[in-house]
Amino acid sequence: xxxxxxxxxxxxxxxxxxxxxxxxxxxxxxxxxxxxxxxxxxxxxxxxxxxxxxxxxxxxxxxxxxxxxxxxxxxxxxxxxxxxxxxxxxxxxxxxxxxxxxxxxx
Amino acid sequence: xxxxxxxxxxxxxxxxxxxxxxxxxxxxxxxxxxxxxxxxxxxxxxxxxxxxxxxxxxxxxxxxxxxxxxxxxxxxxxxxxxxxxxxxxxxxxxxxxxxxxxxxxxxxxxxxxxxxxxxxxxxxxxxxxxxxxxxxxxxxxxxxxxxxxxxxxxxxxxxxxxxxxxxxxxxxxxxxxxxxxxxxxxxxxxxxxxxxxxxxx
Amino acid sequence: xxxxxxxxxxxxxxxxxxxxxxxxxxxxxxxxxxxxxxxxxxxxxxxxxxxxxxxxxxxxxxxxxxxxxxxxxxxxxxxxxxxxxxxxxxxxxxxxxxxxxxxxxxxxxxxxxxxxxxxxxxxxxxxxxxxxxxxxxxxxxxxxxxxxxxxxxxxxxxxxxxxxxxxxxxxxxxxxxxxxxxxxxxxxxxxxxxxxxxxxxxxxxxxxxxxxxxxxxxxxxxxxxxxxxxxxxxxxxxxxxxxxxxxxxxxxxxxx
Lengths: 106, 201, 256
Hints:
The complex is a heterotrimer. Chain A has helices at residues 6-21, 31-37, 72-90, and strands spanning 26-29, 47-52, 55-66, 95-105. By secondary structure, chain A is an alpha+beta fold. In chain A, helix 1 (6-21) packs across helix 2 and helix 1 runs antiparallel to helix 3 (72-90). Chain A starts with 5 loop residues before the first helix and ends with a strand. By secondary structure, chain B is mainly α. Chain B contains eight helices and no strands. Chain C folds into two domains: 25-100, no CATH class; 106-232, GMP Synthetase, Chain A, domain 3, CATH 3.30.300. Mean pLDDT of chain C is 77; it is low at 1-15 and 219-256. Chain C starts with 26 loop residues before the first helix and ends in a 24-residue tail after the last strand. A four-stranded mixed sheet of chain C has the order 3-4-5-6, with helices on one face. Chains in contact: A-C, B-C. At the B-C interface, helix 1, helix 2, helix 3, helix 5 and helix 8 of B face helix 1, helix 4, helix 5, helix 6 and strand 3 of C. Strand 4 (95-105) of chain A pairs parallel with strand 2 of chain C, so a sheet runs across the interface. Chain C: It comes from Streptomyces chumphonensis.
């Protein structure tokens, strides 16, 4: 199962959040992920790493607010791509899945 | 006795008996807030906060206590909105929540026996009066002080009827008592207040 | 006409307290008469001559004047400091409310195999604004349900709708005397909502059920299930029952 060091996970979470926040149209991430970043690692369900037979599986649950004037679906797609890329840079062999939920339009 | 429930204002007091009427807009905003739209709820809070603060201040005699009571009432309303069926207007519903919260506060404050309605008004509690000295006549200050001499239930009935313009039936529904009981309390309150204030004649 | 000692208005002999003035007139009767018509109460033959009634009316008038003063003071104060107080209360209430949001179910965005969602409250807000772009229209309840559902059903907080197309259930009001007939208003609303779903959200909305409620019916808005307003539906790929005079333009399929 989870046999990866915690600090790696924390740094991965940090990279994932920064990638998502940098996506055009993203206003902010919900406290869930931010709380995780600030060390509330108990909230780790937002980023789940699972070791499997043929590598590692990473699932990211992303909750974000979108700026009005941006199409919500397009922003979720861009954020997904950015997050996938951020994970691939650090864990090239991992397979990545991302759930994106728009929690507000601001 | 007049059968119509609403107190007739006649032409002597235009608009006196209703400080605010809920507009159709309230129903729309309530429907939205019930579905979790907190922005709609904020509009309702902003719109009806002042009159409810007014009510709570008249009931509790202290603006600070009134603020707490109204704040708690709105938060409780937000939590209960999903179950609110809209059989009453939002403002009437809020009046009910605020009035009952004030009554509970007053009852817990007053463990002693109910004051005898025929006693003289207590020494005026000007410092606890909702009325700012600089802005009101001494008579109005004494009126608010005299309100403190009423039982919580009498005060609620009198304030709702005379200062907020509700009919006996509406007050009865709000407080969960009979219409006749409301009439009795308004009568006793008025009896007490006319006597207390007769010095101002 | 015979004068009773209780005055010209026969009725219950005494108020709830059974309290009568020394002249025999019930105090509550006298007050009721005054409430109905202050001038007439004072002009009653009995009241004009009776010192007890006159004194009781004078006391009541004094109290009434004070009530007016208090109402005037309150109106004046609420225009100034009252609003500041209320703003403070509003801010504190909303701080608490924002920690207890009810976002509703998550509604699918995009293609069936995608894993993208939007919370119902955010989407509903978009649809209400879109509907209100139609002149005179104001939006109330707005729910989003799976296409197969025709009514709201309870969902646990945080629940997700099944992936796939959805239906929007929207209640709007239109002012009476609007120049356009109700079906046209409903149609305009439907098109705005459909456009917003596609253009602003990227949501696959296949049907928009618009219920137009008369302003006059608003008192009963609590239960919108059976209003006299018009409900009609535009659903491509289905044969919705709708009035023949409604020219509904079915929403195009969301292609992304």
